[in-house]
Amino acid sequence: MNRTIWVLIVVSILLVPLELLAAEAPQALMVIRVADLAVLGVFALELFLRVLTFRPAELDLYDDGWLGAARIQVLGRVRYLLRPMTLIDLLTVVAVYPPLRALRAARLLRLLRTGRIFRYSNPFKGLVQGLRDNAPLYSLAFSLLGTLVLIGGLSMYAAEIGSNEDMDSVGDGLWWGLVTVTTVGFGDIAPVTPVGRVIGGVLMVSGMFMLALFAGIVGQTLVHSVMSLRQEVVRMSGLVNHIVVLGYDPGVRMLFDALEEEMDVSEVDVVVFADRERPRHLPPDFQWVRGDPTKQSELDKVRLGKAAAAIVVGARDASPQEADATTILTLFTVRSYLGMQPDLGRRKQPVYLVAEILDVENVAHARTAGANEVIETTRIGFSLLAHAIREHGTATILSEVVAAGAHNVYIGRRPDDLEGIVAFSEASTMVKRKTGAMVIGLRITTSGETVLNPPDTRRVQVSDHLVYLAERPVLRAP
Question: Cα 102 vs. chain centroid, distance in angstroms?
């Protein structure tokens, strides 16, 4: 059914420019108008059948006899017809009246009912729900508006009739009342009598209060529904191969400084996903999406299945055990989510997960939950402090090693000049001579084991990777 509606809407819109082009061809114009009426008839029939087959919920609740049932049937169908999405359909039908032919463009709004334009989040559904949930507020506001227009318009007509040549009927008075209350002020009708000017002044002041009333109602009921679309920007984008940071608190601020030093964030997209408002001090190069990383249903917001890597950070405003529990739950959730991605088999490499753990006892749990790497930030920091007491200057050296912009630790493939199995001393000497980097260990790819400062005679397999110190990467990435 939806496909048929789509086709009819497209045909209906195409008929509009065709009708303009065929203005000087009576026969073609007649055919186009007949086709337009046929499409309009289909829309009218579909709307009529939906209203006719609608069953009010009150029928299943009350037993008021045939008279009460008839009243429920009529009132229920009227309320159904006045629903916002049904009113859109009604607008497309009343376009049969020539002065309202411009309403044919409203047929485009029928696409909102199919739910395919907004695949992930439909703000119009939020608007409709907001209107429905706050119907009493809107009923009160429109009732006050109607009352002001009615009283002001009738009073203006009674005061100005016979004295104002622009005031010919009650309709003119009501039109003037509506224009004045809404502060539009076309100026086509203006009071000329003292009483009329007093009425106009009262109505203008009342209009200011009416605008404030509507602004307050809309601000409390509809703005949130529209702004929720902001959280879907990343999901609706074509973002791929990006980095996702799961979780945030003020103590994580230095992570973003490190990411800016480690990579060009203007080229690599970094998305932060946390259940709070975007902090003011977050650099503008980082995208922010609000949501709960522990809920699998929300991970689509950041297109985690299309990401290159994800960092799970611990919360500093909770105890280490609580923070690690959230981190481990997030890891389990992420792994479950990634395992359900339809394009999992097409990826060259899976999403690389790095997790921060605050309590050393939870490291194994984080690895079990699916982290590729676990960073024990608290233990590392305390170990540096303790070792610096014994070996002065070591903490400063290690801080420089792990900081971007100085000598850092990298892992890369063996140089192409090395053929077959060679000794560690031969590999490190060649790398030092060609690149200036210092090889300090091996990454055994078959087992994932890292061996630091191996013996010079240690055999380096073709598949092994080299761990080295350098100011920048100098060997091909693994």
Answer: 33
